[in-house]
Amino acid sequence: MQKVSLKFLSKELGLAEGTVSRALNGYSDISEATRSRVIACAEKHNYKANQTARRLATGVAEAVAYLMPANTNALSEPFVSQLLEGLGQSLARRNWDLLVVQASSSEEEAETIAKLSRSGKVSGVVISRPYKQDSRIELLRKYKVPFIVHGRSVSHADYAWYDVDSESAFMDAVDHLVMLGHRQIGFIGAPTYYHFAQMRLDGYRAGILSNGLKVNDSLIEVAELSDDAGERAAVNMLKSPASPTAILCATDTQAIGALAAIRAQGLEPGKDVSVIGYDGLAFGKHTNPPLTTMAQPLAHSGRQIGDMLLAIIDGGNPTDYQELRSAKLVRRMSDGPISGHTE
Amino acid sequence: MQKVSLKFLSKELGLAEGTVSRALNGYSDISEATRSRVIACAEKHNYKANQTARRLATGVAEAVAYLMPANTNALSEPFVSQLLEGLGQSLARRNWDLLVVQASSSEEEAETIAKLSRSGKVSGVVISRPYKQDSRIELLRKYKVPFIVHGRSVSHADYAWYDVDSESAFMDAVDHLVMLGHRQIGFIGAPTYYHFAQMRLDGYRAGILSNGLKVNDSLIEVAELSDDAGERAAVNMLKSPASPTAILCATDTQAIGALAAIRAQGLEPGKDVSVIGYDGLAFGKHTNPPLTTMAQPLAHSGRQIGDMLLAIIDGGNPTDYQELRSAKLVRRMSDGPISGHTE
DNA sequence: CTTGATTCCGAAAGCGCTTTCGGAATAGCG
DNA sequence: CGCTATTCCGAAAGCGCTTTCGGAATCAAG
């Protein structure tokens, strides 16, 4: 199988390489006659420009990297595949590549970003789950790499992001619980170096206060992003004197752990203690009982993020690309009126 | 920020570009003295060779693509992230890139592979979940792209693969169920164009026969790879006169659906009807009841697959890289002795 | 028929790196 | 000290494509 390069085509056609290239790339100084000849020949031989050479010549990488969050745990990973799928679709329309890069530690993360930017192999980057102060964001800015973040850090005024308003989602969740008669509402949060964790906690607090309740610190636990951690946090909280009748969790994964903790105490989630998660993971339908959750619109987020990033790479102003979606309550079976409420 | 290229370094050092390059790449015709000078200078200026140029010059892509299976559904996706993570780690040790490419349809898949091979942007490919006859495999072979498949097709003698022996896993599962007293054992399979689906079905059949039972076609259903499909298949089977006391499912996702179906009939999974899944997904711990499953060793499969592919790219013989792992039973709560067994 | 404007294409210079080749400088040997 | 063998580096030719520039050929206008 003869390798079909520009040179090959040019010989075949009796044209100069540059001419063939220009014909293929839509330059206006090529007559329609020869252009169609060239295109026909290219198709006939199934010509695909060597991307590497093209990249080198044009200086544009035609590729985007997704920085995979380190230490993800199996339960929450579906969001990675979803995002990747959407990103891929968005990039595919331009024939761009999607690179997945990872770094295990955060120092390594800096190193990785530095390498990415210098090696010039990507024209843009997307990162997930930013910290409150996120050094990745600062680096990306410093190196002037176009990027978009899936989530927001504290000062998110001057870069592009796509996020779901979890703060008001948690306010809504508290409202919902209060409406069901709950007064002792607990919160299992995530480590607050994650900005999303802080926002969710803020939403919880705001919701409590706006309902005329008092924030009780013994009803607040912080747990890692895993089912086991959620479970441990829930047993702690259940043990505390301020026994909650409902528990809000920062993530579905933790909420699932909480469910287990409640059942382990001989209590019935959804009757004795309500629990509401956040994320809207599909398998929440199958937990025991099915998990009520604040669902975020995951569906096309990947594609949208991709489109936004592309727009920025094309010269768009990053601050024009900030999008805040909202989550909505999906009631399944893990919430209910406070027990004894009907007495 | 001055861009630091080979030219820059060579001027800085008063050496020729080629010399600097050779020094950095460990050629033996460079004196140790100048080599260390060069390295020091490179580090000082944080030089990273432009990958694109390097690729063009050497002709090696230094990148591997993962062909994302189309139409994955959220419930089963954790395996994608896991695989990607492992692959990434493996490639990172050489500083290679991981590309994620996808194709929505199978014609598009062929197109994608063709493009991949011709554009020369990857030196290897990994694909998942092969069909019995998989055109992707044939294409990859035809184009002489090094590849490895995660799973096996029917004729898997002459390429590299990494798979779990689900056939014997299903035989084991049947044995287990028989030991618990079950005689009416149903099977919810996947579409048999997936070779894994065929192998699991074969394992089921072999298990039934080796236990002196008879294969009853009304106890065999085929369902898509989703919880809903699993549920539908299970209600069908439960409706049939040959009422099963246990159901084996080709995937955990389907098994979870089966659990729901059983409960919907007012029966108790694990007591009235046992169900055993396959995959060992983490969230099986949280289903109602927790799902007994044949767990495959997902943990480092990604890294291993990456290492195997790299070895092949380095010139290894593909057939030397075929690895068959085995799954093992993880008992949770969805299996139990046949009801009435103790009477 | 001459001149100036257009249209269309060829030639050539890169993009930043690798790698081969040859030659100067040094070393080893008799 | 002369000669060959080493050691070490510079020069240059690509890798396959893009893009600028200029010029030949064609056209319209005077």
Description of the molecule:
2 copies of one chain form a homodimer. With 343 residues, chain A is of the alpha/beta class. The first copy, chain A, has 3 domains: 6-49, 434 Repressor (Amino-terminal Domain) (Orthogonal Bundle), CATH 1.10.260.40; 63-164 and 298-326, Response regulator (Rossmann fold); 166-296, Rossmann fold (3-Layer(aba) Sandwich). Chain A is 42% helix and 16% strand. Chain A is built from 12 helices and 12 strands. The first copy, chain A, has a 6-stranded parallel beta sheet, sandwiched between helices. A 6-stranded mixed beta sheet of chain A has the order 7-6-8-9-10-12, with helices on both faces. In chain A, β6 (185-189), α9 (195-210) and β7 form a beta-alpha-beta unit. The first copy, chain A, is elongated and about 85 Å long. The model of chain A has no long low-confidence stretch (mean pLDDT 92). Chains A and B meet through α4, α5, β2, α6 and α11 of A and α4, α5, β2, α6 and α11 of B. The structure holds a DNA duplex (30 and 30 nucleotides).
Strand and helix map with partners:
2 copies of one chain form a homodimer.
Chain A (H helix, E strand, L loop, with lengths): L5 H8 L3 H8 L7 H13 L6 H8 L4 E6 L9 H15 L4 E6 L3 H14 L4 E5 L6 H8 L4 E4 L9 E5 L1 H14 L5 E5 L5 H16 L9 E3 L4 H13 L6 E4 L2 H13 L9 E6 L12 E4 L5 H13 L8 E4 L2 E3 L13
Parallel strand pairs in A: 1-2, 1-3, 3-4, 4-5, 5-11, 6-7, 6-8, 8-9, 9-10
Antiparallel strand pairs in A: 10-12
Helix pairs in contact in A: 1-2, 5-12, 6-7, 8-9, 10-11
The structure holds a DNA duplex (30 and 30 nucleotides).
